Amino acid sequence: MSPVTFRCIAPRSKARSLLAPLLLLAVVTLGVRAWARDEGDAARAKKLFDSALALMDRNNHARACPMLEESMSLDPGMGTQYYLARCWEKTGRLARAHQLLLDVAAEARKAGRKDREKHARAHAALLEKR
Asked: Is pLDDT at 15 greater than 70 in this prediction?
């Protein structure tokens, strides 16, 4: 009869047993930071949007357009696109405004917003004549 040998199975090392919880903590932390950044971006975008509309009401389109562009980069939205197109129109960038209105119309169509689609297409048609 041959001697029985036992293999010693060492417990997991401390570093290895801490790895999974640390990875989970890192993932959660990064997710919370991304969420907070997104919330901050959305708030900043809204503030820029509101300020830009106030400037447009005072016919200061030259200052409003960059604010709308920044708002779009932070939190793109159909309404912001529409007002950016109007702003570009007022500053003489008719081709860019026309294209953006067509983009708004296409996005509105996908979203099932026929009212916005119709309005954007009508506005684009007016620009096309110019």
From this structure: no
Q: What local confidence, expressed as pLDDT, does residue 40 receive?
A: 83
Between residues 19 and 6, which one has the greater pLDDT?
Answer: 19
- 130 to 98, 118, 125: CA distances (angstroms): 10, 19, 9
Residue entry with tokens 């048609």:
125
Q: Which two tokens stand for residue 125?
A: 């048609």
Per-position DSSP letters for 64-101, written without gaps between them: HHHHHHHHHHHS--HHHHHHHHHHHHHTT-HHHHHHHH
**pTM, two decimal places:** 0.69
| Contact between residue 87 and residue 123 where contact means Cβ atoms under 8 Å apart | no
Backbone angle region of 75, left / alpha / beta, with phi > 0 → left and psi within -120 to 50 → alpha: beta
